[in-house]
């Protein structure tokens, strides 16, 4: 798995503003929109970005956009 540290630039801010059209329906905020916009801007056919999230609202909005995401398994507790 590759990991990247990416800058937030005007392209990402502009795309995040567009992604916010889903905010009211799916109940997420601007930080989630920036995460999604970063993945949209930096994904390519050859190297798609996959967002790792357990946030249901962000996943629903990403699914509406046809974006890739991965839901990590919740750690099991032993008591």
How do you describe this structure in short?
With 79 residues, the chain is mainly alpha-helical. The protein is built from four helices and two strands, in the order H-H-H-E-H-E. It has a two-stranded parallel ribbon with strand order 1-2.
Report the uncertain regions.
Answer: 75-79
Strand order of the largest sheet: 1-2
Order of helices and strands: HHHEHE
- Total count of helical runs of at least 4 residues: 4
Global outline: globular
- Give average pLDDT, whole number: 87
Q: Report the sheet-strand fraction.
A: 5-15%
Mind describing the biggest β-sheet?
2 strands, parallel
C-alpha Rg (nearest Å):
14 Å
- Structural class label: mainly alpha
Instruction: Bin the helical content.
Output: 40-55%
C-alpha end-to-end distance: 32 Å
Tally the beta strands. Answer: 2
Structure description:
With 79 residues, this protein is mostly helical. The protein has 4 helices and 2 strands. A two-stranded parallel sheet has the order 1-2. Helix 4 links the parallel strand 1 and strand 2. The termini are far apart. Mean pLDDT is 87; it is low at 75-79.
Topology at a glance:
Blueprint lengths: L9 H10 L3 H4 L3 H13 L8 E2 L3 H9 L4 E2 L9
Parallel strand pairs: 1-2
Based on the model shown, name its key terms.
single chain, 79 residues, mainly alpha, two-stranded parallel sheet, 4 helices, 2 strands
């Amino acid at each position: 798995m590759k990991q990247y540290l990416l800058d937030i630039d005007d392209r990402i801010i502009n795309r995040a503003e567009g992604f916010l059209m889903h905010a009211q329906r799916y109940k997420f905020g601007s930080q989630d929109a920036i995460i999604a916009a970063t993945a949209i801007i930096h994904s390519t056919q050859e190297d798609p970005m996959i967002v790792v999230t357990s946030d249901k609202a962000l996943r629903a909005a990403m699914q509406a956009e046809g974006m890739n995401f991965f839901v990590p398994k919740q750690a099991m507790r032993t008591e």
